[in-house]
Amino acid sequence: MRQMVLVGFLQAQNCTTLASAxxxxxxxxxxxxxxxxxxxxQVLEAGKFQLAFFDDRLAMPDIYGGNPAEVVANGxxxxxxxPVAAMMAMGFGTRYLGLGSTASTTYYEPFDVARxxxxxxxxxxxxxxxxVVTSVNDAEAQNMGRIEHMEHxxxxxxxxxxxxxxxxxxxxxxxxxxVVDKKSGLFADPGKVHRLEYQxxxxxxxxxxxVPRSPQGHPVVIQAGSSNRGKTFSARWxxxxxxxxxxLEAGKRQYTDLKAEVARLGRxxxxxxxxxxxxxxxxxxxxxxxxxxxxxxxxxxEVDGLSxxxxxxxxxxxxxxxxEAFSAEELEGMSGMQAMRDRVMRIAGRNPxxxxxxxxxxxxxxxxxxxxxxxxxxxxLEQWFTDGACDGFVVAGTHMPGTxxxxxxxxxxxxxxxxxFRSDYTGATLRENLGLPVPKRGSWRLx
Length: 447
Ligand SMILES: Cc1cc2nc3c(=O)[nH]c(=O)nc-3n(C[C@H](O)[C@H](O)[C@H](O)COP(=O)(O)O)c2cc1C
What we know:
TIM Barrel; 16 helices; eight-stranded parallel barrel; binds flavin mononucleotide; two-stranded antiparallel sheet; alpha/beta; 2 domains
């Protein structure tokens, strides 16, 4: 029987995806310590989650109002420690849980990313994954010494080149290249270590990679592009996909389209898991879950929504009053997550206002939260999974570690009883637990 993938959506930050998470009375506040991440990892591992993944952005959302004062005062995702370090801490406190982290193809160098993630895969015994992002806004560009963020489609063209270099690095050492024979003095077989020469439009790299092949061959590649260009990129490169489907019908359609595109490229669509975001708010009974949800809703502040919209759309939402419509030119100037902007325009059916953006995207609030008992939340996940809208879920938290504790206590046993979710880990590596093969050298090249 087909079983679902469960991924914990994590932040190496003071909040979850909900900016208000730090205000929750049960939220732990030691988010700069290893203990915080290990505690969360251990909960996820007790719940047999395949993967815990850290998102990232290379700036705080201080585009809003053009200065950091308001977001800092309100704690709107302003602390972002290095997610790879947090992932390592979590990895050393767990045994089977896969660990993923985000790195940008727009602001890092491919050699650096290839080396870092391949090293993590060694250190964690084959449990590493890399979430490939192209980044979204000018605040990130400016932290990284540029003036403005690259144009949307061009950054994906650059990302294609980046992926070719990273995969070529990972192919640098063949299996069995390391000999380490003290007697003969042969350290490694030079016939099995290959030099890379790459010259693209945006990137070039030449040299010999310095990290031997890792337990998984290479880390699992995750991607979450949602624009047309982003989806093409996902279909080309991802081994695991994250999505945020609007509703069940849209999910079914887009899931089918993505799998068809993967097949068209000659890749095996059954090997690629597509996981959509879920925001469960769960308790013993529906009434208790509703009380929890009311508390979570009460923690929201408008600055959360407005600053996170400014961040995602690379546009200062403080320039407008709540009910003022954006001009066509202003909408065109939103260069961040364009799929988000396009969806608001479509749903509003006219030039949207700031309020339309807040209401449609529910930025800063749990979008489409599944509120209920373990059975009710499991019903909903089961429907999405069996109706062909996804292969699993990226479970997002309203506060840490409470959301995952509740999920593991109330939902996981229910999914296991129904045979929809594993009762234990099936292997030592993330690939084994996701049913992914160890990639052969060069298998990333399209036929
Ligand atoms: C579950 C999930 C996690 C994501 N994590 C990140 C992240 O860590 N950093 C980031 O910049 N974007 C992240 N994104 C956004 C996507 O990578 C992508 O930029 C966004 O969906 C817009 O699509 P586009 O780039 O194709 O326009 C995430 C999206 C989803 C659904």
